[in-house]
Write a structure and sequence with these properties.
Shape: globular
Structural class: mainly alpha
CATH architecture: Orthogonal Bundle
Number of helices: 14
CATH superfamily: MetI-like
Strand content: under 5%
CATH topology: MetI-like fold
Helix content: over 70%
């Protein structure tokens, strides 16, 4: 198992390098540069050249790439052009909020999707199954930003039950400790629901399809013929064997939720990585834009790596497939 994990890590490292290299050159080759934000009759061309020199934009692109890569491998992402702060500090202020949002959304997505998928398979072709299938298709198809805006309009503006956005209320620091926790929870309800419900719809469909396939297997018929109750057969035998596709989907949900968080954070004014990424692109803040996209690309690779490892844990044949092939040849 250790050799399998190390082999997957060895493949992931060059993939990460290729990805962040492409991100660097694509951003650098975009038209304009950060100094265009400061173009004004009050600034002379000499001042603009001084700013380009300060940002290191007067150097050839291959020199900038080498300097950036040398710093990047040492954990130094540079300084933000727009904020004048280290990029690590800018990201550090926001990554916690994004991890909370995506982590809770992932938890809600997996729990809700797996449970509803099992129930839909147990009650296949029933009214419940049809309703869940329609709702899953609806939430999967609907744009997240539109759903977020509609929920804000209904629950925040019309009913006043939930806040429209932000992490905490304005008077959060004056609330008692218990009310402060409650205040954070109510601010999480809408964004977590919007971000998690789409992924839950996909998980439910995967779980339902996998359950229906497992239920056609001979060992399920044997278990039923032995007199085991349907509940035990469904939950203990079928559900456990049907988790394979969902395990693969778990790792792939990490980058999916992160990319979805970019839109959701803007809709709900959530101060996370998504808002920083969008603002950095609009401000042509190269160091922040490159660092955030590199983190996003790393999450894609990490998600696939987690899927491979979890699938290998669930199915030992994945781990020893190469060894068995070698023995067969001998």
């Amino acid at each position: 198992m250790i050799r399998y994990i190390l082999r997957r890590f060895a493949i992931a490292i060059p993939l990460l390098w290729i990805g962040i290299t492409l991100m660097f050159f694509l951003i650098q080759l975009a038209p304009g540069d950060p100094t265009t934000r400061y173009v004004s009759p009050r600034f002379s061309p000499e001042v603009r050249e001084l700013m380009r020199d300060r940002f290191g934009l007067d150097q050839p692109v291959h020199v900038r790439y080498w300097n950036w890569l040398s710093s990047f491998v040492q954990g130094d992402f540079g300084r933000s052009f727009d904020r004048g702060r280290p990029v690590s500090a800018v990201i550090g202020d926001a990554i916690g909020n994004t991890l909370i949002l995506t982590g809770l959304s992932l938890f809600v997505s997996l729990i809700t999707g797996v449970i509803l998928g099992i129930l839909s398979a147990m009650k296949r072709h029933s009214v419940f199954d049809r309703v869940m299938s329609i709702l899953a298709l609806f939430f999967y198809s609907i744009p997240g930003f539109w759903l977020g805006l509609m929920l804000i309009l209904i629950f925040a503006l019309q009913l006043g039950w939930l806040p429209a956005g932000g992490v905490v209320s304005v008077n959060h620091s004056y609330l008692p400790p218990g009310n402060q926790i409650l205040d954070r929870v109510v601010h999480l309800i809408l964004p977590v629901f919007v971000l998690g419900v789409t992924s839950a719809a996909v998980t439910m469909r995967y779980m339902r399809g996998s359950m229906l396939e497992i239920l056609q297997q001979d060992f399920i018929r044997t278990a039923i013929a032995k007199g085991l109750s349907e509940r035990i057969v469904y939950l203990k035998h079928a559900a456990r064997n049907a988790l394979g596709p969902v395990i693969s989907l778990f790792g792939l949900s990490i980058p999916f939720l992160f990319s979805g968080a970019v839109i959701i954070e803007i809709v709900f004014a959530w101060p996370g990585m998504g808002r920083i990424m969008v603002n950095a692109v609009l401000a042509r803040d190269y160091p922040v834009a490159i660092a955030t996209t590199a983190i996003a690309f790393a999450l894609v690779i990490l998600g696939n790596l987690i899927s491979d490892i979890l699938y290998a844990v669930a199915d030992p044949r994945i781990r020893y497939g190469n060894q068995q092939s070698a023995n067969a040849v001998r």
